Amino acid sequence: MGREATWPASAPTSSDFFSPLDRSEAAAAMPKESGFSKAFAGAFVFLTVSVVVGIVTMVIFYKTQIGPLHPTPRPTPPSVTTSLPPVTRLPEHLLPQRYRVVLQPHLYTRIVEVVNVTSPNQTMLFTGNSSVTFLCVRSTSVVYLHSEGLELSGAAVTDQDSGERVGVSWMKKREDKGRFLEVQLGAPLAAGGNYSLFLAFRGTMTEDLYGLYVSRYSEGTPAYEGDTDTERFLAATQMEPTDARRVFPCFDEPALKAVFDVTIVHRRDTIALGNADMKDSYMVDDDWKVTHFHPTPKMSTYLFAFTVSEFTKSASSPPGRVDIKTYGRSDAIDAGHAHYAAAVTGKILKFYEDYFQIDYEQRTLGKI
């Protein structure tokens, strides 16, 4: 038999796997690893000590510098809402039935005099009064309606069924999003009763195209730079969506419809147009004219409209059930610029009446 391989009787040692050269290299490497570990440990200790020292320093600084100032603690947020959102809808206690509105724009339609060379005598003031008749659906001792940007006075409440006055304790305007006028009464209104509220007011027209505003235009050619003889002004209204309250106090919500009896006081040589056809117009003195309009159909406040201008000429549409008139500047009317509008308006009105199966309720229709 051949020779058999045999394993050493004892377990192998490191000397069995390393040559003399390998052992010398391993021995040389051991001091380097030991040095790296010591450097890492030293850095860690240094950082730890730095953090501890920093924390101690901050605590000492707070106690010596900030602590005596007694800083306000952080607020605790509430777990629930602390107040309700603002109310923006009127209570359903009162239903308006009819408005009687008198409005007087003090606007000049042209500059008639120059004061101190540079200051024209123009004014944006308007004044008036309104009386709204309403039905009391539920008994209440407070009347809420809308008013914005108006100076109000002379509040008076009358029982329309008995003719007796109801005392007014106080009146105030609420400056929240609701823009309510709050009228506190001395006695409650009875459910089912008819009452009226009278108020005098004054306000300022703007040039921002809402509420009662002023519009400018030119008529003719200026003779020189700064010539105001060709400058013209007119007063007009834009009540949508909720700007009727800027012109007179009212229940300014679309669902609260009512009839409007309107009177416009305006300067001589001007014409007033409104929602309804004119009832009569006459001079009251050398400067002012009064124009009364027929009552309107029941409508929302945002449909309330009127204008005051020098647009005295008009072109009439062909005869029909509705008297349609077109107003414009004198030079535009003379040039025939309104002929097309006058001719086509009746056809457009008839189309929409047929389409919606609703007749236009007014006897007249005026366009500018």
From TrEMBL:
Pfam families (UniProt xref): Peptidase_M1_N
Gene3D superfamilies per record: Neutral Protease Domain 2 (1.10.390.10), tricorn interacting facor f3 domain (2.60.40.1730)
Presence of keyword Methyltransferase: no
Single GO biological process annotation from the record: peptide catabolic process
Protein's cellular compartments: Membrane
Domain of life (superkingdom): Eukaryota
Transmembrane segments annotated in the record for this chain: 39-62
InterPro entries recorded: Aminopeptidase_N-like_N, Aminopeptidase_N-like_N_sf, Peptidase_M1, Peptidase_M1_aminopeptidases, Peptidase_M4/M1_CTD_sf
Keyword Heme: no
Aminopeptidase N-like N-terminal domain location: 97-303
Keywords, alphabetical: Aminopeptidase, Glycoprotein, Hydrolase, Membrane, Metal-binding, Protease, Signal-anchor, Transmembrane, Transmembrane helix, Zinc
A cellular component term, taken from the record's GO annotations: cytoplasm
GO molecular function: metalloaminopeptidase activity; peptide binding; zinc ion binding
Requisite cofactors: Zn(2+)
Family under the similarity heading: Belongs to the peptidase M1 family.
UniProt-recorded name of the protein: Aminopeptidase N
Organism annotation: Liparis tanakae
Species lineage: Eukaryota, Metazoa, Chordata, Craniata, Vertebrata
